[in-house]
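Per-residue structure
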Amino acid sequence: MKLVVVLTFSSMAVMAVMILQTVRQELQLRHLRTRTVEHLADSKRGERVITLIKSQIKELETNLASVMGRVDELKKRKAAAEKAEQEHQKRLQASHYFLLRKAEEEMQNVKQHILDRDKAVCIFADPSFAEVR
């Protein structure tokens, strides 16, 4: 009878240990399942954030492309304006040079005309007067 009692207690002890291990495994599985669900939710949130950021990046790229196009256009306009300004300055200098030469030529003509007139006056003037000399 002692053997039956010992076997019964030992089998109950083994059964209790097995039940405890099973409960512990079930708790671990439940914990793993909740962690898996949490990680899945986190990954879905991360995917949403990634898609949102990708769409924002595409938006920024299109904005950047349009801004860069505008910058290139403005650079071209600036270069054209600078070129036109340089051409205008060259034409202005050429015109100034031409007008200066023309004025000098007219001054020479006027001087020559005055000299010719003075010579003509001197021919008719009497050299005996002090004013004529």
